[in-house]
Amino acid sequence: MRAIGVIRHSPGRRMNREEFEDLLRSAGYEVVAILEQRRKEHPRYNIGKGKVRELKALVDELKPDKVVFANRLTPGQAYNLWKELGVEVIDKWQLVLEIFEGRAHSKEAKLQVELASLQYEVPLVKEAIRRIKLGDRAGFKGMGEYQTRQYLKHIRYRMGRIRKELERVKADRAVKRRRREEVGFVLMALAGYTNAGKSTLLNALAEESVEARNQMFTTLDTTTRRFKLGGKRVLVTDTVGFIDGLPPFIVEAFHSTLEEIVKADVMLLVLDVSEPWGEVRRKLLASLDVLRELKALDKPMVVVLNKIDLTAEEDVEDKRTRLMEIMEERGLDVRLVAVSAKLGRLEELYRALEEIILTLPKYGSFEITVAEPENVPKVMALVNSIGEVLEVEYGEETRIRAYLQTGMIKELTRLGVKIKRLDHPHQREGLEDNERDNYGG
C-alpha cells in the first residue's frame, strides 16, 4: 500500500513529521511523498486551495492508494478532498485505528478497536446522509439514503452491544483486582507515550518476555505480571500507549484498559529520556493530558526516565531537572528515576518503589501478638511477604510490630493471632469500630 502524507502546521505549532512517518510505516504503508504547509485551517479542505492543486498533481503522478492527513479532518473536509483528488482520504486517527486493528489479539482489545472505529464512523455516515439530501453524492460506500440510514442504525445498535460486553469485562476485571488485593498484591500500572519502552520495562521487572518492539502501539492487550520487591508481592500491568492529541473517542473505547491506571496503587509514567528535550517535553505533556482526562493524577507517581544507555549521564540529569520543574509548576508530587529497562539497570526505581509502597493508604502500622510459639515462624514469613517487620519482642507471647497491608489482616487472624493498629503518620487516623473488631484489637 502506497500513501502520500499531508501535514498542516498551525501558526506557532509545528507537528512532528518523523512521528507521522513512523505511524504510516507502522500501518504498513510505503510513504511515497510528504506534503507540508503552514497556515490556519481551511474550513473546506483543511489545507489551502493552492496546496490541494499541488496535492492533486502528486496524486496523478504517484498513484497512491490513500492520502493520509496528520491533522484531524471533519467529515465535510474528508468528502471535499476525496471529490477533488479521486482517491481515498483519511486522517491520523483513522490511521491509528488501522494500526490498532492489526495489533489487537484478545477479545477485549478487538471490541475496543471496533467501538473506536464505529464511533469515528458515525459523523461520516451523518455527513453522507446530509450530502444525499443535497443531491451531492450517491450515498455512503455506494449506498442510497435508506441503506445509509439503516447502516447508521446498525452502527448505533452494535456500539450498544459492544459497550455492554465491555462492561462485563470491566466487572470481571474489578473482581480479579479485589482478589489480588485480598491476597496481598500491590498493584502498579505502566503508562506513557507509545514506544517509550513500557513493555521492555515490564519484562525487566517481571523477568518475562512479553512482546516488545521498536515500533508504535506494540501493546494493545492488557498484560499483567508479578514480581517481588523486597519480599513484597507486586503486580504490574502494561497498558496501551498514548499519543499527542489522543481523541476522546479512543480514550472512551479503551477506558476498560486504561482503568488499570486509575485503579492502580502506584503509576509508573515512562519517558524515553534519550530523545531531544523538545520531544521529551512534548510527550510528557501529552501523557499528562490523558492522565488528567482519566482523573489519575492524584495517585503516587514515579516518572521513569528510560533508555539512559542511549544518552550521556549529564543529559539525563539536565532533563531530570527540567522535568521536575514542569511537575512542580503543575503541583504534582512525583519522583523521577533514571533506568535502562533494556540493560536491567533498575536500582533507582526499586529504591523509590520500596519507599513509596509503605506510604500507601492500604498499609498501616500494627502490633501482632502471637500466643503459640510454634506459630511464630509462619506469622513472620507471612508478615515479610505482605509488609515489613519493624520490631520483635519475645516472651510468653511474641509481639511483632510491622507495616502491613490492611487487606491481609484476615489472613493473619486465621493463624490465631491478635492484631492492634498503631498510629502512623502516613496512614489515616483512627479506625471505625467495625474495622477494630475485624482486626481483633
TrEMBL record:
Residues 186-361 form the Hflx-type G domain. Mg(2+) binds at S199, T219. Signal peptide: none annotated. GO terms for molecular function: GTP binding; GTPase activity; metal ion binding; ribosome binding. Pfam families: GTP-bdg_M (PF16360), GTP-bdg_N (PF13167), MMR_HSR1 (PF01926). Its main location: cytoplasm. GTPase that associates with the 50S ribosomal subunit and may have a role during protein synthesis or ribosome biogenesis. Belongs to the TRAFAC class OBG-HflX-like GTPase superfamily. HflX GTPase family. This is GTPase HflX. It comes from Thermococcus celer Vu 13 = JCM 8558. The gene is hflX.
